[in-house]
TrEMBL record:
It is a multi-pass membrane protein. It comes from Enterobius vermicularis (Human pinworm). GO terms for biological process: sensory perception of sound. Keywords: Membrane, Transmembrane, Transmembrane helix. This is Clarin-3. GO terms for cellular component: membrane. It is found in: Membrane. The chain crosses the membrane at residues 12-34, 91-118, 130-150.
């Protein structure tokens, strides 16, 4: 009975590791790590004005009076040109810690598969290793999250405001910036 419960719990950890890998890959592919919408002085937002970006690509569409102008961009190209919302070094560290977390998750998947089929041992390749790889993945993803939030607070919000100020007349335009639907900030742009 104990062996059956152990194998079921290890199989559940295998499913959780696999779900974690899938969620991280989906989050890397999304273009909505942050989204910004200019709002006029009356509080009305135009559906034609937006900027959103993920870690690898994004798009912006702004309407300054001659119709909306849509442009897709890659974060890599804009980081190297120096015109992106992200600073180069934190962006690289975010990618590094996410890749490291994915590595720990994949190792956890392998350890879970092995421990579902073979006899238990008390090494790092056994059930104890499942905790170890989970904690390492948690630390890596947590580090990436903290760096992203610092980058968002110090660079992304401010650079988006400068982007609006440099690209057109924005008397009384407010910038509504959201970070992953959790954080919301407002900054008033004045010319």
């Amino acid at each position: 009975m104990a062996t059956c419960c152990r194998r079921i719990s290890i199989f559940i950890s295998l499913l959780m590791f696999t779900a974690a890998v899938a969620l991280v890959i989906v989050s890397l592919l999304t273009e909505y790590w942050f989204e910004s919408r200019p709002v006029n002085e009356k509080g009305a937002a135009s559906k034609y004005n937006y900027v959103h970006s993920g870690l690898f690509k994004g798009s912006r569409q702004l309407d300054w009076g001659l119709g909306p102008r849509y442009k897709t961009f890659t974060v890599y190209a804009e980081v190297h040109e120096g015109i992106n919302f992200f600073a180069r070094v934190p962006w690289i560290f975010i990618l590094f810690f996410i890749a490291l977390g994915l590595l720990w998750n994949v190792i956890g998947v392998i350890i879970s598969i092995v421990n579902t089929a073979v006899k238990e041992n008390d090494t790092i390749a056994g059930p104890i290793g499942i905790y170890f790889w989970s904690i390492l993945a948690l630390i890596s993803y947590g580090s990436a999250l903290i760096i992203f939030l610092i980058e968002y607070a110090t660079s992304i919000k401010l650079n988006f405001k400068l982007f609006i100020l440099l690209d057109g007349d924005c008397n009384g335009v407010t910038i509504d910036t959201q970070c992953s639907y959790v954080f919301n900030s407002r900054a008033t742009a004045q010319s």
